[in-house]
């Protein structure tokens, strides 16, 4: 009796379970090729859910896929002019596939490009030609797939020159860095400088004849005709100071205090100059005697004098001399000819 009761209960449960509705996911509206979603203006971006999608009997299997049965959705776009497109799918929950076709029906579709995962694949699209975009999970997965379609942007270009503070004595090097989001290179270059130079080389060197502000323009063009222009101004300033004369006493004695004068000549741009006066030490090394910073106006005739004083010691007398060295440095900017910024003079020292 007990066995019959249990069996009857199981039968009732089975009947009720068969009577319950089964939740079947509805296919997306663009599940079939004939119902491909038409893309209007670009850029287009959509996180498209392929849950419930199917694979049609005559539907092509993308060459970059895994070979597993796919659950696909379709999009269509017709450009009005020749254009370089950048279709792309991204990984959301699973790996994805994007294939692009031309044709008018499943039977005559021809694959143009195919890309797995999130690789960007440039597509040279022809005017008035309809392109069909097939998206799916790599191994038949279904769910959200981020899909974007945009026109390839122009390359990103930066132009450089070295040194960044050129003078008329510098052979200035010009170069650039280029990144193309579409990864299509075969680049062409068009450089122009404000002093009349033009070149199509990727990099080059050039020496300016005189100081001034020179416009620099670089146009970089990709093989498919997208271009970017970069404009800068090259400021050429030849800053140059020199030690005109280092005046020290010819002879001195222990405990005598003498004046040491350093004359700085500046013919170009008024600026602050720092002069460091040192003396050489036996065995090598130097001892700083003084550091002085003065404003040195630009003038052709009279130099600017930096005055130092030094008291000679018994150690100087033991050596018999003091080797003075003066070094001049621009406070602001770079000296174009630093080789004339140092002077050395010797004073004989008696006990």
3D structure, described in words:
With 351 residues, this protein is mainly β. The protein folds into three domains: 33-151, Jelly Rolls, CATH 2.60.120; 156-236, Immunoglobulins (Immunoglobulin-like), CATH 2.60.40; 241-350, SOR catalytic domain (Immunoglobulin-like, Sandwich). It is built from two helices and 24 strands. A five-stranded mixed sheet has the order 1-3-8-5-6, with no helix packed on it. It has a five-stranded mixed sheet with strand order 18-24-23-20-21. Strands 2-9-4-7 form a four-stranded antiparallel sheet, with no helix packed on it. The longest helix is centred in the N-terminal third of the chain and has 18 residues, at 2-19. The model is unreliable at 9-23 (pLDDT under 50).
The outline comes out as elongated
CATH topology-level name of the largest domain: Jelly Rolls
Spatial extent as radius of gyration: 40 Å
Which structural class matches the secondary elements? mainly beta
Parts with pLDDT < 50 across at least 5 consecutive residues: 9-23
- First-last Cα distance: 136 Å
In N-to-C order, the SSE pattern is HEEEEEEEEEEEEEEEEEEEEEEHEE
The percentage of residues in β strands lies in: over 45%
Helix content: under 10%
How are the strands of the biggest sheet laid out side by side?
A: 1-3-8-5-6
Biggest beta-sheet profile: 5 strands, mixed
What is the count of helical runs?
Answer: 2
Number of domains: 3
Task: Provide the CATH architecture of the largest domain.
Answer: Sandwich
Number of strands: 24
The average pLDDT score comes to 92
Reading off the top of the CATH hierarchy, the class of the largest domain is best stated as Mainly Beta
């Amino acid at each position: 009796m007990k066995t019959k009761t249990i069996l009857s209960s199981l039968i009732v449960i089975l009947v009720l379970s068969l009577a319950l509705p089964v939740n079947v996911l509805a296919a997306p509206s663009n599940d079939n090729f004939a119902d491909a979603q038409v893309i209007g203006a670009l850029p287009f971006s959509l996180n498209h859910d392929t849950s419930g999608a199917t694979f049609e009997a005559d539907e092509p299997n993308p060459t970059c896929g895994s070979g597993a049965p796919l659950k696909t959705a379709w999009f269509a776009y017709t450009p009005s002019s020749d254009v370089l497109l950048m279709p792309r799918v991204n990984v959301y929950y699973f790996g994805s596939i994007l294939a692009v076709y031309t044709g008018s029906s499943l039977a005559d579709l021809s694959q143009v490009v195919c890309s797995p995962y999130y690789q960007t694949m440039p597509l040279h699209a022809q005017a008035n030609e309809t392109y069909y975009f097939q998206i799916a999970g790599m191994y038949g997965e279904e769910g959200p797939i981020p899909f974007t379609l945009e026109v390839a942007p122009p390359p990103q270009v930066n132009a450089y020159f070295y040194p960044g503070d050129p003078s008329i004595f510098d052979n200035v090097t010009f170069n650039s860095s280029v990144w193309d989001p579409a990864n299509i290179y075969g680049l062409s270059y068009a450089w122009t400088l404000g002093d009349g130079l033009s070149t199509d080389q990727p990099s080059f060197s050039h020496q300016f004849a005189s100081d001034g502000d020179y416009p620099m323009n670089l146009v970089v063009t990709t093989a498919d005709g997208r271009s970017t222009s970069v404009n800068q101004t090259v400021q050429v300033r030849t800053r140059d100071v020199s030690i005109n004369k280092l005046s020290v006493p010819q002879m001195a004695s222990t405990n005598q205090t003498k004046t040491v004068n350093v004359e700085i000549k500046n013919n170009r741009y008024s600026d602050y100059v720092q002069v460091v006066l040192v003396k050489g030490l036996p065995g090598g090394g130097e001892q700083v005697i003084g550091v002085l910073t003065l404003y040195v106006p630009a003038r052709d005739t009279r130099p600017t004098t930096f005055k130092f004083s030094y008291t000679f010691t018994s150690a100087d007398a033991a050596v018999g001399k003091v080797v003075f060295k003066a070094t001049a440095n621009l406070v602001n900017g770079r000296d174009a000819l630093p080789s004339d910024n140092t002077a050395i003079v010797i004073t004989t020292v008696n006990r």
